Amino acid sequence: MSENFNAFEISPIVERGQHAVAPEVFRGIYAMPMFVRIPTSDLTTSTDFWVRGLGFIELFSIPGRVVHLRRWAFQDVLLVPSADMPLETAAMTVSFAAVMSQLDHVAAECEELVAGSATGPYSTPWNTLDLEVVTPERTRVVLTAAKANDPDTEEVRNLEAAGLIAPQNGNHVGP
User: Fold this and answer.
1) Which domain holds residue 131?
2) 0.70 cut: is pTM over it?
């Protein structure tokens, strides 16, 4: 018996697959249960990339100290200045939920801003379609979109074997 239970209703996205609609940017202030702090040698360039490329908003900033970026509820990024940045991609990777219809647009926007920054979208073994983007500050950002739950796919069968049972209708939670 699995200790996990269906709690899709607390997610900003309950629909799955091609027809899922992205929620609005969340502008509320809350105690952040999760965020990433990313050092950058250029706050302006990094902020522009995250806003125009990845679809975040600038929730607030303290000039020269921090830029708080937000996408959906609980998708918070703090950009902070750093004097010395490694030349290679940082070991840090952060993943954000997305919907499938956003991935191609985000990839194109990021590629326009920084050629070679986007890889994908590509399918994963955990039944998502992912887009990887390397930001100007060398952080690996993964936008991950849930695919519809097709019980005839190996991905869904593997998840069910691990005790992760999808909602009955395969697309959204509810009766």
Assistant:
1) 33-161
2) no
